[in-house]
Amino acid sequence: MVSILSFLFFLFIVFFAFILPLLASIIKIVNQYERGIILRLGRFNRVVDPGLVILIPIVDRIILIDIREVPMNLPSQEVITADNITIKVSAVVYFQVVKPEDAFLKVQDYVSAIFQLAQTTLRNVVGQSELDEILQHREKINLKIKEIVDETTQKWGIKITLVEIKDIELPESMQRAMAKQAEAERERRAKIIHAEGEYQAAQKLTEAANLMATQPVTIQLRLLQVLTEVSQNKGSVIILPIPTSLMELVSKIDKLNLKNPETNITIKEVNQ
Description:
The protein is α+β, with helices and mostly antiparallel strands and 272 residues long.
């Protein structure tokens, strides 16, 4: 009885010490978002899809590669633009492994390689552009960076899906200058709009004056309309304007009377 228990205990130790680790090295599970690279005796053998994988002990080795889209932050870095302005630019890069065998065999650390490449490309592209172009045409710069980085990473089996500039930090002096420029631009537009309004009003007044000149009775009608509007307010002071033609007529009479004191010219005689 003791010998049987000792034998069972020995089998138990052998199972957990040798057989269980051996089974763990033979049977591997590949997740849905992964691909497995099989190396047989150190040489590339095949790429395995998600599921259960059986390996040859000691001979085979599996490396799992994540094929999900990965976001990578590029920290803020100082860049001198083409018009000699120092700014700080940060960005984000999205990439995805499309050929796991190339990502493992052709580059030692593809994540670090993409980071270094994207950071250098961002600095070069922004440095070749002027500040106004960077602020106004950010999509164009994003596309240019994406094309340059993607051209290099294609041989690594990696696709760059998106590049976006996140933040652009300007010097305080430049921010103040741009604020003054924006304020001056708003004032210019306001003055132009005001001048256009004055010009249109002057045109309408000219048209109205020409119309009244052809129809003098319209002046009297307009005067009566104004008096009607003013009289509706209680306590209003109504001022009746004297026509300038009447004042000119009185002036003529005074001049004639001064020249000939003996004559007494009336307004009717002057009109005749």
